[in-house]
């Protein structure tokens, strides 16, 4: 968190860039990846359970 006045446009830009880089360096969301993998697993199980016609 930071404070800046309307006259500190350059500082604002530097802080936004810094925070953006921090977020990008965190990488992908592990929870989202986990949910995607669970969905794939459940879809594969559903295909195996379906009776052949």
Explain what you see.
The protein has 53 residues and is an all-alpha fold. It has one domain. It is built from two helices and no strands. The longest helix is centred in the last third of the chain and has 20 residues, at 30-49.
Task: Sum up the structure in keywords.
mainly alpha; 53 residues
Q: List low-confidence stretches.
A: none
- Give the topology string: H per helix, E per strand: HH
How would you state the average pLDDT, rounded? Answer: 84
- Please identify the structural class as seen in this structure: mainly alpha
What Rg, in angstroms, do the CA atoms define?
22 Å
State the end-to-end distance: 61 Å
Tally of alpha and pi helices: 2
Counted beta strands? 0
Summarize the structure.
This protein has 53 residues and is an all-alpha fold. Helices cover 72% and strands 0% of the residues.
List the helices and strands and how they pair.
Elements: H1 9-26, H2 30-49
């Amino acid at each position: 968190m930071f404070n800046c006045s309307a006259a500190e446009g350059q500082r604002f830009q530097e802080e936004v860039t810094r925070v953006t880089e921090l977020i990008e360096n965190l990488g992908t969301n592990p929870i989202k990846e986990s949910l995607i993998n669970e969905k794939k697993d459940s879809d594969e199980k559903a295909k195996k359970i379906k009776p052949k016609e």
